[in-house]
Design a protein that fits this description.
The chain has 361 residues and is α+β, with helices and mostly antiparallel strands. The protein contains 14 helices and twelve strands. The strands form two sheets. A nine-stranded mixed sheet has the order 1-5-6-12-11-10-7-9-8, sandwiched between helices. Strands 2-4-3 form a three-stranded antiparallel sheet. The chain is globular.
């Protein structure tokens, strides 16, 4: 087992480097109100977090990451623009893999800046890139905002688009929904049965569960609306597949996406943001011709990323989680800002993995 004292020392070293890059150190409580995270991610997060109960404060959650509490702090008290850093432990339940850590250190770097978001993306990435360069890690990048824009531009019902947006971070579920909405896959039998009955609730068994009759009726009405909607065209499905299938160096990926945007105008603005980001990365000294870009990258990570995403990986260590990850999370500031919002981007490094790789102080 890696020495905790060495990991803590490495976390402090990274914290100092982030401060040298212009960040202000902040700290957050280890115990966080569970209500906020449950509102953001739904009940699914219970499978990943440690939750306890307090007689006065209600459900509390051991900090699963720093981003949410840092956003809350900034939206309540922060000036603009702002740059923060932090270091400390986070906690994640592991039910399938006993070898994965359930508590580990993170050191992070976050920027809140509405004036030049692509420059902020490049700054976060280049700072972390420079800190990790001696370790010989492989960098991967993507942009979830392009896929979100593609979904938003589909010629289908708002209800279907909302369902697809909700499952962008669950690729298999997203694919299954897209097949059903395009007519390539039939509606599940249990749902189809409801549509063939004149009144599915007439003479039904006693109502069980938390949903009211009105909620059940609304759900049945939604199923009827979905069944009556025309299928998403095969052309649009092919364009979505083209977006998620892009995998190349960042400069060539940009050209691929610009070609797709000619047939799918809804992604044009997001692709233009990618173009500006790559220019900002080049200005920061990052050769984008040697930087990997994947259209689906980041879709299995935390659900608050909605734009630029990146990760750094140890070559030849498929067993090891990413050493660093990050991305843009503008929508999270909107959700936590009580009507206010500010573009934001950040990233975290896992000092324990750096120590394991022998790349720490």
């Amino acid at each position: 087992m890696t020495d905790r004292a060495a990991i803590r020392a490495e976390a402090e070293r990274l914290l100092g480097l982030f401060q040298e890059a212009g960040a202000v150190p902040v700290d957050t409580r280890v115990l966080q109100p569970a209500e906020v995270l449950l509102d953001l991610y739904g009940e699914d997060i219970r499978a990943r977090a440690y939750i306890t109960s307090d007689a006065l404060r209600g459900e509390q959650m051991l900090r699963p990451d720093f981003t949410v509490p840092v956003v809350q702090m900034h939206m309540a008290h922060g000036a603009e623009p702002a740059c923060y850093t932090y270091a400390g432990e986070v906690f994640r339940r592991q039910e399938d893999d006993p070898d994965r850590a359930n508590e580990y250190f993170q050191a992070g770097f976050e920027i809140f800046d509405r004036a030049a978001p692509e420059a902020a993306d490049a700054r976060v990435f280049s700072v972390i890139y420079g800190m990790l360069q001696p370790c010989g890690l492989h960098a991967a990048t993507g942009d979830i905002g392009i896929l979100m824009a593609a979904v938003e531009g589909l010629r289908t019902t708002e209800r279907r688009k909302r369902a697809l947006r909700r499952h962008i971070w669950r690729p298999k579920r997203f694919h299954d929904l897209l097949e059903r909405f395009s007519g390539a896959k039939p509606m599940p039998e249990s749902r189809a049965a409801l549509l063939t009955q004149a009144d599915p609730l007439d003479g039904a068994a006693p109502q069980i569960g938390l949903r009211s009759r009105a909620e059940i009726e609304a759900r049945i009405a939604a199923l009827h609306e979905d069944a009556a909607a025309p299928p998403i065209s095969s052309e649009e499905v092919a364009l979505l597949d083209a977006v998620t299938g892009v995998r190349d160096s960042a400069d060539r990926a940009l050209r691929h996406l610009q070609g797709i945007a000619a047939d799918m105008p809804s992604i044009a603005a997001a692709v233009a943001r990618l173009d500006r980001r790559l220019a900002a990365l080049e200005a920061a000294g990052i050769a984008t011709g040697g930087l990997d870009f994947e259209g689906s990258y980041g879709r299995t990570q935390m659900e608050y990323y909605d734009g630029f995403v990146f990760g750094f990986y140890a070559e030849g260590r498929a067993d090891m989680p990413p050493v660093a990850t990050g991305g843009r999370y503008d929508a999270l500031t909107r959700q936590l800002g009580a009507g206010r919002e500010i573009p934001a981007v950040g990233g975290v490094i896992r000092p324990g993995l750096l120590v394991e790789l022998g790349g720490g102080a």
